[in-house]
Structures are given as C-alpha cells and as structure tokens.
Amino acid sequence: IDVAKRKVFLLRRCEMPEKNLLEQKKNNLMKALNRQGADYVPTMLASSCAEVAWTGQKVTDVIGDANAYVKAMTDVFEVMWGDANTFSGTLFTPAISDIIEPVQNKFGPDGVTPEHVQMPQMERGEYDQLIEDPFGFVANVLLPRKYPKLFEDREYAKKTIKAIAADKAYAMGVLFGMTDKVLAEKYGITGICNFADVFSNPVDTLFDYLRGFKGTLTDLRRQPDKVKAACDRLWETYNLPKLQGTPAPFPYACHMTHIAPYLSPKQFYEIYWPYEKFWIERAAAAGTKVWIMLEGRWENVWECFKEVPKDSCILHIDDDDIIKAKEVLGDYQIIEGGLKMASVRTDSPEKIKDDVKKIIDACQPGDGFLFCTDKAWIAPGDVNPVSYTHLRAHETGAYL
Description:
The protein has about 400 residues and is of the alpha/beta class. About 50% of the residues lie in helices and about 10% in strands. It has helices at about 5-10, 20-35, 50-55, 60, 65-75, 95-100, 125-130, 135-145, 155-185, 200-220, 225-240, 265-285, 320-330, 340-345, 350-365, 385-395; strands at about 45, 85-90, 105, 115, 190, 195-200, 250-255, 290-295, 315, 335-340, 370-375. The chain has a six-stranded parallel beta sheet with strand order 6-7-8-9-10-11. A hairpin with a 6-residue loop joins strand 3 (about 105) and strand 4 (about 115). Helix 5 packs across helix 9 and helix 10 runs antiparallel to helix 11 (about 225-240). The longest helix is centred in the middle third of the chain and has 34 residues, at about 155-185. It starts with a helix and ends in a 7-residue tail after the last helix. Mean pLDDT is about 90; it is low at about 10-15 and about 390-400.
C-alpha cells in the first residue's frame, strides 16, 4: 500500500473537485478488482447506522428528518477514508414498531443498534402444504397466524399495509438514495452492491422466514427429503424467476448468506451450493461479478469457489482468517475483509495500525483484495472511545 499517496489524496480533498476525487478512487478500485496494479488497497465500508452515534446522536431522533439523518450518517467521512461502500443505512425506521405487532426488526434501547428477532411461523408437519403451493401457504396460513388482525379488520389492514409500504419506500428509497448521493458526490465513495439484484438462496429463505434456526437444522436431520423438495419448490416459484434478466455490469448483484456456516460440508454441497453456483455462473456469463457476504465460517467449503469462473466473486470474509483466505482463494476470487471488529472495540489505535499493515502486506500482492472490517459498524460500542478520538484527529483518516 502506498500510504504517502493516500495521505496526499486526503489532504488535497478540499482542493480537489469532488468529481475528480470520485473518478480517482473508482479507477483505483477497478484496478484492484481487475488485477491491473492498483495504486493502493481500496478501503470498503460496511455499516448500519453507527455513524450517527459517532456524531453523538441517536438514529431514532434524527431519522424522521432525511437531511439531518444523511448528514449524521456521512459526517464521519470528513476524517475517515473510504473508497467504496457495500451497505450503509437501515431497511426500516422506528415507525414500524408503532404500526404493527409483532415486529421482527427494530432499534435497540440505545436508539442506534438494529435488532432482529426470529419469529418462525411454519410448523414441522406443514412441508407438504408449502411444497404444493408456496404463495398460497404463506398468504392463507402463515400470515393469518402471525398477524390475525390484518384478516379480521379490513380498514386496519388497508391502513397498516399502506403505512408499511410508505416506511419501506422512505428507508430503502429516500434515505439510501440520499446517503449514496452524498457519499459519491462529496466523498468520492462508490457503491458496489446493487440491492435491486439481491440473491436469495432458497435454503436461506426457509431458514430466515419459515422454519427459523432450530427448525431448519432439525428438519435437515429428521426430514431432509422434505427440506430438499421444499427448497426446490421455492427455487422454482420464488427465487429463479428473479434471475431471468441479465445482471447489471456494475454495481454488482449481492447476497447476504445466512444458514451456510451451520451446515456440514455434505449438507452444503448437496442442498446449498447448487443454487449458489447457478447464480454465480449467471453473473459470470454476463461478464460481471457478484458480491457475497460469507457470514460466519466458510473455510471447510472454500474449495467450491474454485468451481466457478475466476474473479466472478467478491468474497467478504467474516469469521475466517483473512490471510489464510487470501492464500487459498486469492488467485481465484476477489477477497474482501481484514480487521476484526472485535479489535476495533478493544485495541489501541497503534495495535490496530500494526494489524492493518500486517494484513495488507500479506493480502495486497497480486491485487484482488479489498480492505474492510470483518463485520459491519452497527453499534456505538463497536469503536472504543480511544479509537473515536483517533478517528476525529488522525490526519490520514482511520483504518476502518
């Protein structure tokens, strides 16, 4: 990494036209992604709303004012360097909690940290109904079971559905759009993920929305044939239709994986990988890439990514060892990750810098590497007070 060059970029930012800054950062990003000799290792962003906490505010206090929220989400980049962004924002607002119960996604007591509660509604003996008619089963069985009032009071249902749709449009349309615009135009930060082209593996669909953690893993042992038949049916009716178009060349299609690290290698290759491989090869055939969050540990199935075209994936490494991931997969796919968020919570700025240097020295050769924290910056406690001070004061930007 050319630290001197990065210093010059940051110190000249106020003198440099924003468009030129965006072009310089994006050009360097594409060099790294295409193994064309990047000038320095690009730094990726991964966050929810913790940037708001960095300004001393709560998300719940400012999210109703789009301009105030976007300013609070982006002020940190006056002192923190970033080249590209995977995700920054929230898929919901606190209004949802006032609209419907039970609510699965909400902000915690600190007014910043998002919380998710699994509420699986499908029973273990209902696979045949799901397989016969997935959409009918959800509409006629699961929804009335979870939200009975929607089916008992028509006026309440109309008002509630309209309010939820408006909230989603505000959070995912207005807030994300405004934030991305400021990140790009003011700070030269490119968004690399196309959330209009999000892949959902049918095994994750079953895991996330229907049977939950305990139910899905138990079913895979006790009734694996039913699980496979249900996933094939979900793939046919829900997942595959979304993949009929050609993926955009950039930003890239993306996938937040969930159940994979809890599967044995045998289960992974039999039930999960065939769908994943189809999706990756679809993007490769279109001449583009996919960004995949390898949530948890994937080392025992890393070899699967050698079965798909070279550099067709950007693999975000989570709990696995980033240096080992680069050694095993770095010649085949783009690797993203680096600093453990646990270190950012507890270590001194000096140790963090030493760790970053070690990671970059090991992973930079040959390009195909993007630096990022392993997990997203989502809570106030994710960066310790010493690092907060360092963030504000360090003239070359923080290593996050």
